[in-house]
Structure formats: structure tokens, C-alpha cells
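Hi everyone,

Forwarding the result from last night's run.
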Amino acid sequence: MNHKISFPIQNISSEEVEELLFIAEQAGRKYIQKQIPSKEIKKLDILIEFDNTGELKLECVVDLELVKHSKFDPQKMSDEAAQKIFEIMEEKLKVEPEERV
């Protein structure tokens, strides 16, 4: 499932955004890996794309596939990981939640 969000930004370079995206992706991975035993994860891909024209527009895809006998809901865990990614971005960019679009 795709998750999208926009943040107002000022004076941030593409390199700084890319570094933030790396940090956010790692936070998303760590979140899932702390919640679900690694032997239950078949596939975990996180893709974060951005458009940095005026405001930072993020699109986050968390593709999580679990083994059949897993008690975890992959959609719920994907949603929570995407939320964690957005929280990290807000924290690093010092964006207030009400500024989200």
C-alpha cells in the first residue's frame, strides 16, 4: 500500500533529503524487525520517493510478506512502519503534525 504525505520545507538540499530518507528507511526496517521475528519475514522492501519542488512530497511503499503461519498482520505492520517513517521525517525536519498535507 502506498502512503503519501507532504511537508512544507525551506532551504534543504537534495543531499540532505536523501540522507533523511536513508535514516527514515532504516527506522522503518528496525521497527518491523523489532516487532516480527526474522524467521517470519519472507520479504521486506521499503521504497521512499520524494519530490522536492516547493514542499517535500513523500511516497512510501512498505512491501512486507510474512510466512504463512505468522500471527502478525502484514498490512497493519506495513502501515505502522510507514507511520514511523513519517514521524522520523517530521522529527528531523522539525515539522509540526498540523503542517502535514
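The first helix runs from residue 14 to 35.

Cheers,
N.
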